[in-house]
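A common beginner's mistake is to predict each chain separately and then try to dock the pieces by hand. The better habit, illustrated here, is to supply every component at once so that their relative placement is modeled jointly.
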Amino acid sequence: MSVDTDTVKRVAHLARIKVTDDAAERMTGELNAILGFVEQLDEVNIDGVEPMTSVVEQTMKKRVDGVTDGGYAADVVANAPMTEDNFFMVPKVVE
Amino acid sequence: MTDLTKLTIAEAREKLANKDFTALELTEAFLANIEAGNGAINAYVTVTGDKAREMAKASDEKLAKGEGGALEGIPLGIKDLFATKGVHTQACSHILDGFKPVYESTVTSNLWADGAVMLGKLNMDEFAMGSSNETSYYGNVINPYRKNGSNQDLVPGGSSGGSAASVAARMCMGATATDTGGSIRQPAAFTGTVGIKPTYGRCSRWGVVAFASSLDQAGPIAHTVRDSAILLKSMASVDEKDTTSVDIEVPDYEAAIGKSVKGLKIGIPAEYRMDGMPGEIEELWQKGIEWLKAAGAEIVDISLPHTKYALPAYYIVAPAEASSNLARYDGVRYGLRVPGTDIADMYENTRAAGFGDEVKRRILIGTYVLSAGYYDAYYLKAQKVRSLIKRDFDLAWANGVDAILTPATPSAAFGVADQDMHSDPVKMYMQDVFTVTVNMAGLPGISVPAGLSNEGLPLGLQLIGKPFDESTLFQLGSVIEDAAGSFEPGKWWG
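With all components supplied together, the output reads:
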């Protein structure tokens, strides 16, 4: 399978990365090189093979569903580009 | 006075306990080397001199009372991927501009609890994506090694290029690193250092900036097999904060070093003899086989038939996981924000400005292979192939193989901005051809310096072990180390 420049632009939008027309064109070639490379997997017989979900055979650890952490809102927002009263500030979403 | 930066961790540990010198003197010696050499090597993106001196003084107080920890006073460099409280942590990306965590990663917490001293944060490929340390926002790291009679700058490998180069250039005694497809072992091989990627689940991933969560593992880079054993013992732990941390006690890895390897069965996989592999890599591999045989190990030919599919499967699994992990960088909670006409435009502008080209490429590949209609054809298939890769190894272990010997890399270090390497992204990806299988199967792998290329550059051999059997890798690695000797770059910097 290969992608065209329109597909690259659509995927970039899904990934929320702005791309210029020039960049989309350049990336189309690069992405197709990678997609061409992974096409080798079509040679492998995967009939009846289970997909890997974990390399280590271990039951997922569980704990009681309860609050175990928190109470430091100022730390949580300490690295945010824009905050007010321990809230993250973003451009207006609802008119 | 002897040059303190030439000591191994094991030697320094003994001399500090004997009070031959102080931890502060040791730290000052490394800070002086960084000051003199970092301009040329660019291994550090931040040097924490004041903090290092403070930690070294605290170590001296503990040592004076005879209360020193396992790494008391040992100066280390930390890859920029590890969260260090109040200190630059950006995965060498612009998108984490100014990020200073309010918490400490489990791995670094373990090191400080054992008395280690932090010298600073080390350069790396952006988000650990790269094999040459040329994708960092903070510029290229330069390999301390050069070809005989040449002054061309070479890459240190990647993504832990800063870790490997800082150890080789004596700018730290050892360094933390991480390995998703070969990012510890390939740079170790390129710089004549020892690097081990432990079993998946051995070191906690808590507080390590995530790239591909099912593949990422932290490990050390150091000068000797023993030093890497000492560091791994401190870095590894069982951690409640990481659900993939495995509940197995951390053994005393050093105890394995020097134990006879007589009777150990070493597998030589036919599929690692690649077309077009340079003769000197083949010769190095043969030498490794002879050394282990001479030490009493039994050499057996094995087959790992799905080896060639590991790299293509990796370039589906790793970008898919990366596209999901890196979705968090949105200009809202941390790092860079570039304004836009609305919130979606702000996201798109921020991510366009914050991520470099290689990271964007991988996010796009990952987004594509996970998008509606393509999931089964790519991601599901890759995870099935991954099961087959693991099964190949499981069969080898079931046949009594104790460890597997392979070359670490398909070549020695190449030039910075190498045109051939940059002509096609897949060429760079091939650097990980011998290492990536190990990540796909979650196994431990160590790279040990084993010789020099015809042009005088270091080459490494890789040993692959059974899950949680790092001890056998240290045991066998030290046999190779003893036979090959140690390597030191000719000093041209600082």
